[in-house]
Amino acid sequence: IAASQPSTNWHLKENARDHHTSKFSSKELIVRRGQAFNISFSGVEQPEQNLTFISETGPKPSKANKTQATFGISSTASKDSWSAVLQSTSSNSVTISISTPPNAIIGRYKLSVQSTSGGSSAPTSLGTFVLLFNPWSSGDDVYMSNKAECEEYVLEEFGIIFAGNVNRISGFGWNFGQFQDDILNICLSMLDRSLNHRQDPVTDVSHRNDPKYLGRVLSAMVNANDDQGVVLGNWSGNYDGGKSPGSWTGSGEILQNWKKSGFRPVKYGQCWVFAAVLTTVLRCLGIPTRTITNFSSAHDVDGNLRVDEYYDTSGNHLDRSADSIWNFHVWNESWFSRSDLGPSYNGWQILDATPQEESGGIYQCGPASRVAIKEGEVDLEYDCPFVYAEVNADCMYWNYDTATRKKTLIFSKSTTVGQAISTKAVGRDDRVDVTNDYKYEEGSKKERDIFKKARKKLGLEDKFDPTAPTPKEIEQKPDISGKFKLDGSIEVGKDLNLILVLTNLQSVAKTVDVNMTAWSTVYTRKPVKEIWKNSISVTLSPKEEKQYPIKIPYMEYQQQLTTDNMIQVTALCHVKDGIQVLVQRDISLDNPEIDIQVLGEAKVNQEVDVEVVFTNPIDTEVTGCTLQVEGNDLIRGILRIDMPPLQANETSSTKFKLTPFETGSKHLVVHFSCDKFADIKTFKMVNVVN
User: Fold this and answer.
1) What per-residue confidence (pLDDT) applies to 91?
2) Rounded distance between C-alpha atoms, residue 168 and residue 165, angstroms
3) Residue 300 counted as an annotated binding residue
4) Helices (H) and strands (E) in the chain, counts
5) Which residue among 150, 187, 271, 365 is the active-site one?
6) Catalytic position from the list 329, 384, 479, 625
7) Antiparallel, parallel or unpaired: β 231-233 and 266-269
8) Sheet holding 480-486, edge to edge
């Protein structure tokens, strides 16, 4: 080896194209494992056959831990170990093709070269490169045969996250931004800041070839609990001291803020924020990942596959059970094989970074095989009982007398939980329902058999549960039925009109005392503030149906509403000489719409105007209006615009310019808020041409 420092040509452009890493804006080589890449270097004396290469990652690299490899030049590439094949030589430069094994440890490597002829000279550094998972390579644990799915679940930077409630599903755009500046470095920092790494860095790095290991570690690192992770959760409805969870438009800002603050948790997140950030990190590292929304999602704390809800005699939803049913919950699915469980459990694996319950002593969840969840195999790793309950738990509704502390079962239901399980379509901005991948048809014999199987595996069939309702309680039949119907639009800024419909199911007259309440809630259905209450007494003739209109004026609910725009309306019906009937509805109010138009054709490197139009729908002025816009390949960073106050019913138009820098279909993610309306969101597909 010559004394001069070799200069390395990493063939960044060609290697990035071959390895699907062109979207990273890095000066460092980023390649995927199990696939060859070319490098050239000069300053090396002949003959090349006497060169030995050393690749190393992590602290104390060793061959035993597969964190170090030494390899010479060979005539053909190896399938399952590090190897180098000579491509060409010139008077002072050598080009070689390096192949890595499909199960190599991912992360940043140092590459050096050493001459084996003429004594033992010290290795000379060629520089560093980053190795990622490779879903395009059939030998990789994350291999995905469908190329369109690889594009969506690894390379797509825009996503749609579904929210609202099962009666009214809405979707909002999110900018995952996994290829933005420095995001890859931040993802690697997350691994180095995990509890596992702090406790035993050498062993931790030696496991970084395994997607199930990394998925579990990162599900813990995305939340701030235990390890000073990325996002601090807050479900109180009060988000002082941070950004409200609904106001983020992408993961990039969150991850950058975490690093800039010296790795202090970013305030605040709720489930979709944790899921979106985990999607960004896993896609960045090359593990195919998507967000999944489960509507009417159970949070079963005590692991009995049952969620208990309590109401007082006035119909107020009491916060006395740790269990709850969320209007929706968002988690992740990542695609990889399960060598620990066997090939039938390969495919989508559930990971959940929202800190709900501890697993192994820390807030992490998964990977749980989706196949195992569908088949009720709740004894398989990891955290299957919790995930199974999220989509399958039975619900028990109790009346709790605060004076006597006596609880009475109102009714139980086995078909409420786990509905309209949703994700974004591949290559389209549509919703796909994946409920059938999580469970057999609700109420079918097969579904009930699997539920029994899961209960049995959890030891719930044989154990006497003093808190469970008796068969007699479960079988009792009510004398009346009731429901809340919506009457007209349900928009923030308008009065809320409902109809309580009560029906006498018996052929004798019935007298009913009805206690009604309305509370604002967060999306977890946690009551925050009382909005309204009323009581009526009703006599229903035999088989009679009666309708009672209810009006909750905007002025009464406006101050109490959380940023989730959710109201829970309850009527507890005390039937004379009969069992109580609970009528309930969770209402998601719609925000007014915001309209966005691109004025003209979007062309690469040419300015184009974008117009955002908002009409204030209420009879009072709105102030504190701000607009936030982001979109990969359209805008660098985040655009924030302060807008003037809007008078009653006034329309405002705001224009800004953008200069796209890549062709293809791109998305603008737009967020508007003011003092009366929080988190009005929309997104716009922009087709950028040359």
Assistant:
1) 78
2) 5
3) no
4) 14, 38
5) 271
6) 329
7) parallel
8) 480-486, 496-504, 545-552
Q: Is 433 annotated as a binding residue?
A: no
Confirm or deny that 253 is annotated as ligand binding. no
Indicate yes or no: pTM above 0.85: yes
Distance (Å, rounded) from C-alpha 393 to C-alpha 515? Answer: 28
- pLDDT value for 118: 57
Q: What is the pLDDT of residues 299-309, one digit of tens each?
A: 999 888 999 99
* pLDDT digit string, tens, across residues 101-140: 999 999 999 999 988 765 567 889 999 999 999 999 999 9
Residue 462 predicted with pLDDT over 80: no
| Three-state DSSP state, 538 | strand
Q: CB of 614 within 8 A of CB of 672?
A: yes
Query: What integer is the mean pLDDT of 330-336?
Result: 98
Q: Is 271 a catalytic residue?
A: yes
Percent of the chain with pLDDT over 70: 98
**Closest Cα to residue 586, out of 271, 324, 390, 268?**
324
**What mean pLDDT value characterizes the chain?**
94
Read off the pLDDT of each residue in 10-17 and give the average, rounded to a whole number.
Answer: 97
User: CATH number of the domain at 477-588, out of 3.40.190.10, 2.60.40.10, 3.90.226.10, 2.40.30.260?
Assistant: 2.60.40.10
Q: Which CATH architecture has domain 594-688?
A: Sandwich (2.60)
Specify the domain boundaries for CATH 2.60.40.10 within the chain.
7-132, 477-588, 594-688
The matching CATH number, chosen from 3.30.300.210, 1.10.150.120, 3.90.150.10, 2.60.40.10, for 7-132 is: 2.60.40.10
475 annotated binding-site participant? no
**Active-site residue among 140, 227, 352, 586?**
352
Q: 187 phi and psi, to 5 degrees?
A: -65, -40
Task: State pLDDT tens for residues 175-205.
Answer: 999 999 999 999 999 999 999 999 999 999 9
Token pair for residue 335? Answer: 């695609």
Examine residue 268 and say whether the peptide bond preceding it is cis (omega within 30 degrees of 0): yes
- Helix, strand, coil share (%) of the chain residues, nearest 5: 20, 40, 40
> What local confidence, expressed as pLDDT, does residue 201 receive?
98
Tell me the β-bridge partners of 396: 308, 412
Active site residue 197: no
Type of residue numbered 66: K
User: How many other C-beta atoms can be found within 10 angstroms of the C-beta atom of residue 522?
Assistant: 20
Active site residue 573: no
